[in-house]
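Let's practice the habit of predicting before peeking. Look at the sequence and jot down your guess about where helices and strands might fall. Then scroll down.
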Amino acid sequence: MAPSAPSLPTSVSDEKYANVKWEELGFGFYRTDNMYVAKCKHGESFQEGNIVPYADFQISPCSAVLNYGQGLYEGLKAYRTEDGRIMLFRPDQNALRLQSGAHRLCMPYPSVDQFVSAVKQVVLANKKWIPPPGRGTLYIRPILFGSGPILGSLPVPEYTFTVFACPVGRFHKDNAGLNLKIEDKFRRAFSSGTGGVKSITNYSPVWITLAEAKAQGFSDVLFLDAATGKNVEELFASNVFIVKGNVVSTPEISGTILPGVTRKSIIELTRDFGYKVEERVVPVEDLLDAEEVFCTGTAAIVTTIASVTFKDKKTGFKTGDKTLAAKLFATLTDIQMGRVEDKKGWTVEIDRCPQG
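Done guessing? Here is the structure:
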């Protein structure tokens, strides 16, 4: 039985688009048509998987993912351009990050080529669900997990690599900027833990803080480091940047912060604009003293942070069309959507669709 979630109306296979009210599209799960599945036995390597109709898995109650949280996920998008192309943005970087996480969690992993091929197959198998240009994107979720039963100790007998996709709109729709709460009690990640990989265990433990913050009217939560509680790290699911004069700073990758693909791209673009970029420890005081603050991520893209509240004191920052964040958002999305020449070789064209 399929997951209970809003289902977008399907359309016949030869239509360019599914029958969707794209202007009402939010960021959430919607069932599409097909997904990719590959399995791997202990001691073996992943081979080519298959595109199958989207459906639930049958899984052992004693599986490694259910009992020990052995699982990773990735997130990337497919974009439909004005001239009919379908584009991916740096999928090899997601593949490499998945491999790093798999090594940390003792799992075999697909090669970069296998990963990218699986993503391409899922996009093409769900092509009609890619929103029209400017109306959204197709969000792609690769997952790697221990699917075999295990009780006590290794080895896990079987692993599954799967990829599904669904159309999404903007993650943050408030163009005025985000209103963050700096969390000073709970910590997201610890040194030598899994904060630097996309482990499935990283997220639900801090849902409670996010839920509380949203109930108080905040957009998201900004977490501090576990060692001192004095330095900013990242939001629930995005990296943070601060701007002071011609210097842009972002917390350094030290094992507790996810090395975001968008983060990496924004650092390069910011340097192209002539700014000095520092990857360093960022004390809360530096954040509060910043002129501008923004966050980045696959879902967030580049989103302005209008204010942060720390210990009941609210501090505001520069927002609007003249900000660095606005310039970066425009530049990055122009590249992703094929509106400008990709001089960096970041985009991967999958297919050219007929116009109609």
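How did you do? The chain has seven helices and 17 strands.
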